[in-house]
Structures are given as structure tokens and as C-alpha cells.
């Protein structure tokens, strides 16, 4: 399964950008491990810095290149989504093209 994820990730990067990022099986294992740790160890919402019982050790590992690639290319998309969510419109229509029109207007407002 991890071998397939590795092949498909590299294939997608090659098809999308024309470059290969050479993701390895080990990097995908690390990424899945990080996701599991984030889900299993529930971090408190707030804590006092000096409390020893809520302190967690840092994960000592290198950041996988796939995370660096995501952060490099998806920052603008995440920012655009968060900014357009501030200007939600209450336009309801059965015509699908009206949604696309108003969404384009919102993107133009945010980008200006």
C-alpha cells in the first residue's frame, strides 16, 4: 500500500508540475506516523508553560519533502480560502452559474 502511495504521489507531481519530487516509502511512513501521533495524543488547548504534566517532547525527525512541497505551493490557496470565508454571501440560487459568478466576484474583492 505504501509503495502504491509512493508511486502515485510521484506520478501526480510529475503530471501536475512536470518535476519529480522523489517521495520515498520512508517519507510516507513518517507522514502517516505524524498524523497518527497528532490524532492519538490529544494536546491540551491551553497550558501553563511550567506545568510538567502537560509538556510533550519534541518529535526529533526531519520534515518529509512532501510536507515542504505542500507548504511551498498551497499557502496561497489556504490564504485565499480563509479570506473569502470572511465575506460569505447569502445568495441562494438554483442556477449554478450564479454561484460561480458570485464566487468570482469574491475572489476579485479579496485579491484587490
From TrEMBL:
PiggyBac transposable element-derived protein domain segment(s): 7-57, 62-112
One Pfam assignment: DDE_Tnp_1_7
Highest taxon, organism lineage: Eukaryota
Family matches, as InterPro entries: PGBD
The protein, known as: PiggyBac transposable element-derived protein domain-containing protein
Natural source organism: Tegillarca granosa (Malaysian cockle)
Amino acid at each position: 500500500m505504501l509503495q502504491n502511495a509512493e508511486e502515485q504521489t510521484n506520478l501526480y507531481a510529475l503530471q501536475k508540475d512536470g518535476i519529480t519530487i522523489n517521495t520515498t516509502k520512508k517519507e510516507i511512513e513518517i507522514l502517516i506516523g505524524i498524523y497518527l501521533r497528532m490524532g492519538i495524543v490529544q494536546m491540551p488547548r491551553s497550558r501553563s508553560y511550567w506545568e510538567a504534566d502537560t509538556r510533550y517532547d519534541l518529535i526529533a525527525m526531519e520534515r518529509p519533502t512532501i510536507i515542504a512541497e505542500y507548504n511551498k505551493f498551497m499557502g496561497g490557496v489556504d490564504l485565499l480560502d480563509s479570506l473569502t470565508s470572511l465575506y460569505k454571501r447569502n445568495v441562494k440560487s438554483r442556477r449554478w452559474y450564479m454561484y460561480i459568478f458570485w464566487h468570482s466576484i469574491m475572489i476579485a474583492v479579496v485579491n484587490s
